[in-house]
Write a structure and sequence with these properties.
- The protein is an alpha+beta fold.
- The relative contact order is 0.18.
Length: about 180
């Protein structure tokens, strides 16, 4: 037993080095994702770009001017239009509902009296295809007001109203940043 301290001392001296090497945090992997660059804000809409070259993404974001029912806690509520030239996708329309939509339901989007049906998944609503995305984007750029109605997984209906003031100008900014011709 008297040799135990002699044997333990080298082991104890070695252990902190091993533990500190194992416990040392790893450096994060380098990514090419750049922070969003603001392109401008026009009334109710803000335009951004991120990345460059084949990874560039350009998008605009707007918040509703009115949400119903009032005084109900919801998550993020916003409308977005996104261009991803490197993926050959343009005018992708997405409405963030702020809650999980009822499974299998659709959302009704009305732009100045013209109706569009969007499919829902989780907390969002989207157009069914690229042609509808483009049609909705053009209608948003020419419209005055957009209203989206959806139903939550708990069967609660919501209505979000967006003023389209500034949408066309924000769309021009993302078109220019992503080299989209109209």
């Amino acid at each position: 037993m008297r040799f135990l301290p002699l044997l333990a001392a080298p082991l104890l001296a070695w252990m902190p080095l091993t533990l500190s090497a194992v416990a040392a945090p790893k450096k994060p992997a380098h990514t090419d994702v750049a922070a969003p660059k603001p392109l401008g804000t026009m009334k109710n809409w803000s335009a951004f770009s991120a990345g460059s070259g084949k990874t560039i993404v350009c998008y605009l974001v707007g918040r509703p001017v009115k949400t119903l029912p009032e005084h109900v806690t919801r998550g993020r509520i916003a409308a977005n239009v996104t261009h991803r030239p490197g993926e050959n996708t343009y005018n992708t329309v997405n409405f963030q509902l702020g809650y999980d939509a009822k499974a299998g339901s659709s959302a009704d989007l009305t732009i100045d009296g013209k109706k569009y049906e969007l499919f829902t998944a989780k907390q969002g609503a989207w157009a069914a295809d690229a042609a509808t995305d483009k049609t909705v984007t053009v209608a948003l750029s020419k419209g005055k007001e957009a209203v989206i109605k959806a139903v939550s997984e708990h069967n609660n209906a919501s209505t979000d109203t967006y003023s389209l003031d500034g949408f066309a100008q924000a769309l021009e900014l993302i078109d220019k940043a992503c080299n989209v011709k109209r």
